Predict the structure of Alpha/beta hydrolase fold-3 domain-containing protein.
Amino acid sequence: MVAQRKIIDQVSGWLTVYDDGFVDRTWTGPPQFKFMSDPVPPHRHFIDGVATHDLLIDDESDLRVRVYLPEVPEPEKLPVLVHYHGGGFCISQADWYMYYNIYTRIARESRAIVVSTYLRLAPEHRLPAAIEDGYATVLWLKDVANDKAYEPWLSTKGDFNRVFLIGDSSGGNIVHQVAKKAAGENESLRPLRIAGAIPIHPGFARAMRSRSEIEKPQSPMLTLDMLDKFLKMGLPLGSTKDHPITCPMGEAVDGLDLPPYLLCLAEDDLVIDTEMEFYDGMKKDGKKIELFVNNGVGHSFYLNKIAIDFDQNTSDQTRKMIQAIAQFVKNH
């Protein structure tokens, strides 16, 4: 007789963990939201001014990326945005519709090539696995810049002197960790240069609840249950949210040659207090960091296509955030 699997944990319609270690990421929430997590096939022809394709960049680790190319005049060299997706280190993929919908817009409006990493997911691959994947993508780009690897769009169009790190939610945590690691190895990364870092709603938190976690409204994109369970599954075994990956607030970075940062926050984000604590710490250490805050919206609001289509403020705030990102890239 075959023993039946038992559920040992679930997270808000996104993820179910069984006692035999199997993790089911089938969406079980309201069906009208399912399309946002559906994969979008790559297309090498331009659709609305952007083409995409997927690429294996490391045979041994099976590390893959999705590349977005905006349609621009032929002679122009383009900055490169290295994107790390969110999902609490436990869910989502680089080809999900919610990312495709936004990063085609960012590629087009920033006139930049986007390279989005398919990160390993927890709990099967706990941190620092996703950070290792994020930095491995930077090292691969260095090889492309040095003509040791070839990717037609990047090799012919990429400006490797203007590489930016960008990430949503837990991807914002990865941005900071990769930026720190790159800062210690700037010389060895040449001719690639990290020109800027753009954490968007990074998942910074403490073991003790912040005031904003208690007082701000929960949203479909982030609940306290998601915050607690995803980070527990994602962090190294035995760690709490006070781990440096999720709690870099107050961490001394004055000795690191970090690139300029654009920290994008949302007024109603559950973790805005700890995000602001990070901002204040970076300013105190003399780092170049700009702050952009969207008003009247919550965590990862710009990924919610339904809200963008039916709520004017969400639509307006999404447009303003993309414009801020495009301007930051242009300025650096």
